Amino acid sequence: MLFCALVSGQTLVEPPDDPGETLLKIRQQVAASISRLPNYMCTETVERQTFRLDPLPRVRDGDGCEELIESLSKSPKNLKLESTDRLRLDVALNSKTEMYSWVGEGRFDDRNLSEIVNRGTTSTGAFGSFLHAIFVTSGPAFTYEGESQEDERHVLKYDFVVPITRSGYVVSNNSLSRVTGYKGTFTVDAKTLALLRLEIQTDPLPPELKVCRTNTAMDYTRVQMNGGDVLLASEATVRMLGTDGHQSQNRTAFKGCHQFMGESKLIFDEQPADGNISASTATKMKIVELPKGLKLPIALTQTIDPTTAAAGDVVTGRLSRAIKDSGSGLTVPKGVKLSGRILEIITYQTPQGANLELALKWESMEIDGAIHPLRLAVRSALSGSSRISPQHGHFPEIRAMARSDEPGVGFFLFPLAVTNYKIPIGFEAEWETTSP
C-alpha cells in the first residue's frame, strides 16, 4: 500500500489522528463487506442515453479529445439527445469477477456482459469489482485530501491513482481492447468510516479506441442482510465520450438484492449459450422440436411500455390461428401461449419525431404440457395491429427485420411513434420456424 499526506497551502484541515491508519481501517471495513458479496445477487436496471455534441468544435490536435472535453465543459447544453433505452439484468459476484444474466434466468454462464448485450455501451465493476481493485489489492497509491462538510455530514476524502502497470481496467470498442490506468476520489463518513461515494476517471486512452475518456461515479449504502451489513452501490453513473463527439451515459440502479440461503443456488452453465438443451433436461421437460417452415402468427398478450420496459424482460404471446403441419401431422391449436424475451427496446430521436425499435425473441411455447423450444425467423408485421395514429389516412408501415448475426431475433421499427406510445396487446407478426 502506497500512501502520502497532502496539506493545502491555503486551507489547513485538521486530519484524523493518523490518515494512514484511518485508511487501513477503511480498507479493512470494505474488504470485510466484499468477502460477503459472493453470497448475494441483485437485479440492476440500466438507463442508457446517447448524446451528440452539436456543434462539434474545431479540431486542433490529432484525435480532437482536448477540444471535445473543453467544449463540453464550457457548453454542456450543446449535448443533444439521440437515443434512450433500458436494460434489466441479474448480477452476482464470483470471487472478484462479476457475472451477468438476463433478469430471472436463474443461471450464470461464462459469457461477458458485452456478449449478452451486444449493442450500445455497457460497463461492469459497480457491483464489486472496483471495490476489490481499489480497496483490497496493492495497486492504488492514496493521498489524504482532508475533511469537509457534505450534506450536513462530516466526510473524509482520499484521492488514489492506479498506474497502467497495476491496472485491470479494460476499455473496449467493437474490435479492440486496451488496459488503462485510472485515478479517482472516494469519500467516507468521518465518524463511521463507511464508504459514501467513489469516483473514477480513466487516463487518456489510446487513439485507436476512438474514446476520449470514461468517468464513473458510484454512491454506496449499507444494506442489512442475514449475514450482516453488506456494502452495495445504490446507483452508478458511467459517462463515455467518443472522439466523434458522441457521449453515452449509463445510470445503473440496484434493487432486489438478496442472499442465497437454504435451497437457493446459482447454476453456473459452462455450456455454450446457443439455446441447446441437454438430453436429460429435454426428457424432464417433454421437449418436442417443431418442424421447419411452419408459419406462426403470434400476437402479444401484454402491453409493452417503452417508458418502463427493458431489454431482459419476459414477454408473453399467443398463437393467432391454428396451425397444422401436413408432413408430421402436428397440430398447434389457436391460443397456445408463448414465452419470449425483449432483447432491445430503444427510442431514437429524429428531427421528424421519435422512432421506436423493439427486438424480440420467442423462446418456447407449451402444448398439452409439452415444452416446444422455438427457433423462429420473423417474416412480417401487421401494421394495423400496432395502433399508431394513422398518417395521411394510412397506418404507418411497421418494418420487421431479421439479422444474420442474431438468429431468432425479430426487429420491429415503429416510425414516428408519439411520446406516450405503447406497443399494444394484440400487436401481431408472422414468424417462421427454422432448422432445429
Helical amount among residues, as a percent range? Answer: 10-25%
CATH C-level label of the largest domain: Mainly Beta
Number of helices: 5
**Which structural class matches the secondary elements?**
mainly beta
Q: What name does the CATH topology of the largest domain carry?
A: outer membrane lipoprotein receptor (LolB), chain A
For the largest beta-sheet, the strand count, sense and barrel status come to: 20 strands, mixed
How much of the sequence is in beta strands? over 45%
Uncertain spans: 1-13, 262-285
Structural domain tally: 2
Mean pLDDT: 84
Write the CATH architecture name of the largest domain: Clam
Radius of gyration: 25 Å
The N- and C-terminal alpha carbons lie at a distance of 56 Å
How would you sum up the global shape?
globular
Number of strands: 26
What are the salient characteristics of this protein?
436 residues, mainly beta, 20-stranded mixed β-sheet, outer membrane lipoprotein receptor (LolB), chain A, Lipocalin, globular, single chain, disordered N terminus, 2 domains, 10% helix
